[in-house]
Amino acid sequence: MNVTRVFGLFAAVFAIAYTIAFEWHWELFSYHPRTGEFGWGQQVSRGGPVMHWYGALATGALAALAACAVALPFTRSRKLPLWLGWAVPLACIILWGWLLRGFFQR
Amino acid sequence: MTTFLLILHGLCAVALLGGLTHQALAVLWPSRGGAGFTSAYRAVSAARFTNANIAFFVTTFVLGAVLYPPYRIAVRTWIERARLWHISGLFEYKEQALAIGLAMLPFFWLVWQDPKDESMAVARKCATAILCLIVWYAFIAGHIVNNVRGLFGQ
After folding, report:
1. A39 pairs with which residues across the strands?
2. Distance between CA atoms of A69 and A6, rounded to whole angstroms?
3. For B53-59, which contacts have Cβ atoms below 8 Å and span 24 or more sequence positions?
4. Interatomic CA distance for residues B26 and B13, integer angstroms
5. Chain A residues closer than 8 Å to B136 by CB
6. Residue A26 phi/psi, 5° resolution?
7. Of A26, B41, B97, B133, which is most buried with the most CB atoms under 10 A?
8. How far is residue A81's CA from residue A7's CA, in Å, rounded to a whole number?
């Protein structure tokens, strides 16, 4: 089974799922760097900062792997468009610029 | 240990920046064999940079992920107290762009498997250019954040 056929899909689904996970707080887990503790999902502060980035990466990776697993059998007869692998991530990177605009407007 | 890892992170980023810029310029603006520095800079076998660039991207990313908790505790709290929101935003954008770039690496590897395959030429150019821009942005933003107290600490 040639998994390289879905590499473009992986990049696209990861970019979308990661963006959604961050924006809608669907992180798989959170990390409390001051205490070194992990907790499932979106966590509130335990007397220090909370990090959601690792959890959002995990959510994005899981969603992308699941999408690729589902799509893989269908790609034997039908090729996925190559633009998925670069245009969707590029669109998400541009979208992030808009989502983070508040940092630059204060 | 954090200082050592930060320097290692920076050195890997320099290597990645050099390799990816070589590869991007070679594919986007191929050398026609002219004399001079710019022609020589672009006259490289771009495909040969692929695996090294992927390895440097992953290594730099992992080192950055390891360094993130000390940054979150010591540096970002200072940036927020100093109300340097645009500096915080620079770093936020860096982490999002790099995460998306990391997931592009398998596709980047795929489009460089046969550099003579014309059906992948557009995807090859676009994926390489996007990764190159991400790395350049991350490098500059990382430097600004790293030097924030010297630049904005008054």
Report:
1. A30
2. 9
3. B53/B16, B53/B19, B53/B20, B53/B23, B53/B108, B53/B131, B54/B105, B54/B108, B54/B109, B56/B12, B56/B15, B56/B16, B56/B19, B57/B16, B57/B20, B57/B101, B57/B102, B57/B105, B57/B131, B57/B135, B58/B102, B58/B105, B59/B12
4. 20
5. none
6. -105, 30
7. B97
8. 11
Mean pLDDT of B15-43: 88
Question: Given this model, what pLDDT does residue B42 score?
Answer: 81
Separation of alpha carbons A76 and A62, rounded Å: 22
Residue A82 tokens read as 């190559």
**Closest A-chain CA to B104:** A11
Domain total in chain A: 1
Do residues A30 and A51 touch, judged by C-beta distance below 8 A? Answer: yes
Phi then psi for residue B112, to 5 deg, are -100, 5
The single residue listed with the structure tokens 């409390």 is: A32
**Residue whose structure tokens are 């503790």:** A37
What does the pLDDT average to over B20-34?
89
> Given an 8 Å threshold on Cβ–Cβ distance, is B100 in contact with A14?
yes
Q: Token pair for residue B97? A: 């762009």
Per-residue pLDDT tens digits for B84-138? 999 999 999 999 999 999 999 999 999 999 999 999 999 999 999 999 999 999 9
Q: Would you call A96 an interface residue with chain B, using a CB distance cutoff of 8 Å?
A: yes
Domain boundaries, position A31 = 3-104
